[in-house]
Amino acid sequence: MSGPARSGSHIPSVTGRESLSYTVQLDRQLTSLEVDMCPSGFAIERLNAPSEGAQALLRNGTIMTSAGSLACPGEGVDVPHPKTDDCVHYGVVLPQTWRDPSALRRAGKDLLASPDLWLWVPTARPEGLHVHARLELPDGIVAALPWPRSGSNFEIPETAFEWKAGGGFTHSPPALLTFAGARVELDVLGEGNAKRDREIEDWLIESARASSSLFGHFPVPRTLVLAVMGERKGAAFGMALRGGGPTVVIFLDAQVSAATLKEDWTCTHEFLHLGVPRLPPEDAWLFEGLSTYYTEVTRARAGIIAPEVAYQRLLDGFARGRSDAGSLTLREESARMRARRSFIKVYWAGAAIAFLTDVAARRAGGATLDDALRSFADCCATSEGAWTAGTVLARLDETLGAHRFTGQANQWLDNAHFPDTDAAVQALGLRSGQHGAAIFEQSPEAQLRDAIMAWRSPTPRSTMPNGRRPDGQ
């Protein structure tokens, strides 16, 4: 479902004091929710499903109003004769499985259950509407949601109605971590394992340290991390979401070891996404390309992998992207990436453009791509505005002092060929090696090559200490 259709429209505020409250009750088995939605100072004219197909989860397929029951077979329903301050009620069934396992999934006794499945959206909403929720949960159940909270009460940002969100319910209290002054709430969903959960915390802190080496600090002041445990072979899978507040959801094997986590780049990659505001899906080449490039760079800077390993992974990625190139341009592939499953080309072509921009900026002297991204994260990482690749590149180039990133993008976006990295790789004295490590050869630009992977210390957002906060505050 598109953002505007899902979020609905707005109307001018009459009093400036209109509000909307949700009361959400969860059963002990985590199989259903009862929701009361009550406006104050305005009338609910229509209810929109919070995501595609969410109406299938409505109990009896209906929503209750003061006028009676409304059938909701589609992705929204008009409320006949709406009245100011009239509440509506609906029930949501939480099944064992769902068509989108990234939104609803069972992990032992815990439940990943995105608000995209149960937070129905009223429209039209007064501008500046204050939205809040009270969750009534069984004893021992904790809500893991990105919304600002005070006890069992939550403030719901407008983006909860507009963008994909994460959330869930768990039987364990969260681990509250800080890094360079940023607050990270970690909720592990699944059967408890103290040793493994501590190893996940260590991995998360190490990943935060790596990503912070790019931005100078953790990219956002606060974020929710949901580690969803289950049966998973191979690397972890992650998502960085913005609906209702920054959230990173990571799916891990329940038996994951510390050694496996050490080798896994997923958490660093998703944290890097938080340094750029939400972009439309067709701009995947930029937001995935930046994160893909800097995943290797920042992990080398943090000492997680050697620079030679980081460069080899970049060389291998460029080679995979080149071999995956087809007849469509990068712009076309990016717009159709999910439908065509052209992830390799889009991710690595975007990473190649970032690499070429980074090298060009360092050759020119002055501001680097690191500097541009630091400045951009400071101003705009938490922005809720309507950004596009074009507006992001314009801001980055403003710091770079030239149309460097835009120029590289324009050269390759409407080209079916993979960006040509050969000349830059050769000039840096890089050669593909064996055993997963690139060979560093003598080169006039060896110093530039080494500088790309050199550590830059994060700058704390405040005086709070790094690592865990034993007081849990």
What do these coordinates show?
By secondary structure, the chain is α+β, with helices and mostly antiparallel strands. The protein folds into two domains: 3-99 and 113-170, Immunoglobulin-like, CATH 2.60.40; 175-468, Neutral Protease, domain 2 (Orthogonal Bundle), CATH 1.10.390. 33% of the residues lie in helices and 23% in strands. It contains 14 helices and 25 strands. The strands form seven sheets. A six-stranded mixed beta sheet has the order 8-3-2-13-16-15, with no helix packed on it. It has a six-stranded mixed beta sheet with strand order 21-22-20-19-18-25, with helices on one face. A four-stranded antiparallel beta sheet has the order 9-10-17-14, with no helix packed on it. A hairpin with a 2-residue loop joins strand 5 (62-65) and strand 6.
